[in-house]
Design goal:
single chain, alpha+beta, RNA Polymerase Alpha Subunit, Chain A, domain 2, six-stranded mixed barrel
C-alpha cells in the first residue's frame, strides 16, 4: 500500500517550486480539479515503487481523499527533475484503463546459444479492469524463445481474473529473438547513417528557454484539467 500527503495551494507552480515543493493537480471521478503541493522526496519514493499503475492512498491537509493514480509526470528538460504531477481520482466501482509495465524474465535459448538479439516491441501494455483488480506488472517469459522462429505474443501473457487487454491485438508480437547482425551489416548501416546525416540542421541547445517552456506547459496542464472537470 502506498500513500501520498498533499497540501492545498493557492500559489502558482513556479512559486511553489521556489519554496522547495512540488506542484500537482488532482482531478477526475466527477470532482473539481484541486491544486496541491507535494514533497519531492515523498513523491519520488512512492512513484519509483508504485509507477503509473498502482493505486495510491491520498491525503490532503491530513484528510483522506480516496485513491489516485499518477496520470502524468512532467520533467524539467534540462535538469531532468520532476516539475509537475497530475493525480487522477479513482472511482472504485468503475472500470479503468491503465498502462502496465512488462517485466522480462527468464533466458532465451536462441540468445544464449546462437548469439541472437532481443527485439522488444512493447515495454508497457494497456489493460482494462476494476480498480481492485489492477496489477502493477505482467511477466514476459523469454524462455519460450528457443529458436529465431519463436515469438512471445500478447496472447501469451497471463492475465489475472477480471483483467482484459485494452485496444491491442492479441496476435501482436511483444518480443522476438533475431540473428545478430554481421560485421558487414553493421558497417553498411553506419555508412548509410553517416551519408544521411545533415549537419546543417544541427542547432545549438537553448536550456533556459526549454526549462521555461516546461514550466508553462505544467501550468497550462493544470488549467486544462480544471476546464475538463467543469465541462463534466
Amino acid at each position: 500500500m502506498f500513500k501520498i500527503n498533499a497540501v492545498k495551494r493557492e500559489q502558482k507552480g513556479e512559486k511553489v517550486r521556489v519554496d522547495g515543493l512540488l506542484p500537482a493537480v488532482i482531478y477526475g471521478a466527477g470532482g473539481e480539479a484541486d491544486s496541491v503541493s507535494l514533497t519531492f522526496k515523498e513523491f519520488n519514493k512512492v512513484y519509483q515503487e508504485a509507477g503509473d499503475s498502482t493505486l495510491i492512498d491520498l491525503e490532503v491537509d491530513g484528510k483522506a481523499e480516496g485513491k489516485v493514480l499518477v496520470q502524468d509526470v512532467q520533467y524539467d528538460p534540462v535538469k531532468d527533475r520532476v516539475i509537475h504531477v497530475d493525480l487522477k481520482r479513482i472511482d472504485m466501482n468503475k472500470t479503468l484503463v491503465a498502462p502496465v509495465e512488462l517485466i522480462f524474465i527468464g533466458e532465451s535459448q536462441a540468445i544464449k546459444e546462437a548469439g541472437g538479439t532481443l527485439v522488444r516491441n512493447f515495454e508497457m501494455i494497456d489493460i482494462e479492469c476494476l480498480p481492485k483488480d489492477l496489477v502493477s506488472h505482467l511477466d514476459v517469459d523469454l524462455s519460450v524463445l528457443k529458436t529465431f522462429d519463436d515469438a512471445f505474443r500478447v496472447s501469451d501473457l497471463n492475465l489475472p481474473a477480471g483483467v482484459k487487454f485494452y485496444e491491442v491485438d492479441d496476435d501482436a508480437i511483444i518480443v522476438k529473438a533475431v540473428p545478430a547482425l554481421t560485421e558487414e551489416e553493421i558497417k553498411a548501416m553506419e555508412s548509410e547513417s553517416t551519408k544521411d546525416a545533415d549537419l546543417t540542421k544541427i542547432e545549438s541547445a537553448e536550456p533556459a528557454k526549454e526549462a521555461k517552456e516546461g514550466e508553462e506547459a505544467a501550468a497550462e496542464a493544470g488549467e486544462e484539467k480544471k476546464e475538463e472537470t467543469k465541462k463534466e
